[in-house]
Amino acid sequence: MTLDNVIDRPEESKEYKQAWVVTGMYLESLFNRYNRRLDNKFAGFCWLRAELISPTFDSMNFRFKNRVYSVLLNLVSEGHSYLPKEQKDMQIEVCAANDMIPCLFTISPDDMSPAEPGWNLRHTVTHAIINPVRISDDSPRQISEWELSNWGISFVKQNLEQKGYKIMSFTDMPGIEPQMWFEDSSGRPSWIQVVVNDSEGPLDYSDSLLENYPGYMAKVNIAPLGDDPVIYRSRPADIEFDGLEKI
Q1: Alpha carbon 229 to chain centroid distance?
Q2: Which pLDDT does position 43 carry in this prediction?
Q3: Alpha-carbon torsion 163, 168, 170, 176, what sign?
Q4: Terminus-to-terminus CA distance in the chain, angstroms?
Q5: What's 144's DSSP letter?
Q6: Is the pTM of this model over 0.90?
Q7: CB pairs under 8 A, 24+ apart, for 79-82?
Q8: So what's the pLDDT on residue 41?
Q9: Contact by Cβ (8 Å): 59, 75
Q10: Is 181 in a helix, a strand, or coil?
């Protein structure tokens, strides 16, 4: 196994990459149409992940009020879908475990046109039309384990980028560790295990390719503001991160 296998960067087709950009821009235009009317930034549409990564369970995902929507691109040409069943099954599994709504965004690779007007989102399992504005509401809904992990990974990634480090790859796929590779101050590939709220100890990297590269642990603590111990979606929280610890 080589380092490229471990880092596992995405090698998507040209058509997929173009469809991914079109989809992101399409959805963001709908987000902005709604968000520009809001005073409370936490109440609007918010991307959770809008980057091409691998391995992953979907193409992009976002939150609106108390619900999280996982979006998987479904390229369809002349009635044929190029989306493998295994990808849909993985999305469904992760969403079921983390209170997320699995959606398909169907788009033609021939002219990059969405299949339907409006949100163009269909439930991956039931194929029902998904309209986030009608589904989400302001009732309290606890964030999931995946959201906590994604939040921590995103925070560490942003922190390192602000310090000038090059991020080689990252993933928020459940069960995949280490979640991030970056170049240290000497330019050497190094890996990071992101741990949120002391959920686990350091990786056992003996007898693996990881032991040939520097490893770090990034401990992130996320806590709700106020007396309620539960972290709810679209509610503010406090994040603490004291930097990387050498493993």
Answers
A1: 24
A2: 76
A3: negative
A4: 22
A5: P
A6: yes
A7: 81/106, 82/109
A8: 67
A9: no
A10: strand
Q: Is residue 56 within 8 Å of 20, Cβ to Cβ? A: no
147 phi/psi in degrees, rounded to 5: -60, -40
Single-letter residue type at 178: P
Taking residues 44-71, report their average pLDDT: 94
- Tokens matching residue 1: 């196994």
> Do 235 and 42 contact (CB within 8 A), yes or no?
yes
CA distances from 29 to 32, 124, 157, 240, 241 (A): 5, 23, 26, 32, 33
Cα-based torsion angle of the residue sequence 103, 108, 112, 115 in order, rounded to the nearest 10 degrees? -60
Q: Is residue 81 left, alpha or beta, with left meaning phi > 0 and alpha meaning psi from -120 to 50?
A: beta
Where residue 1 falls among pLDDT bands split at 50, 70, 90?
very low
Q: What does the pLDDT read at residue 141?
A: 96
Distant-in-sequence, close-in-space partners of 194: CB < 8 Å, separation ≥ 6: 149, 152, 153, 156, 178, 179, 180, 218, 220
The whole-angstrom separation of Cα 189 and Cα 184 is 7
Q: Collect all residues with Cβ–Cβ distance below 8 Å to 59 and sequence separation of at least 6.
A: 20, 23, 71, 72, 73, 105
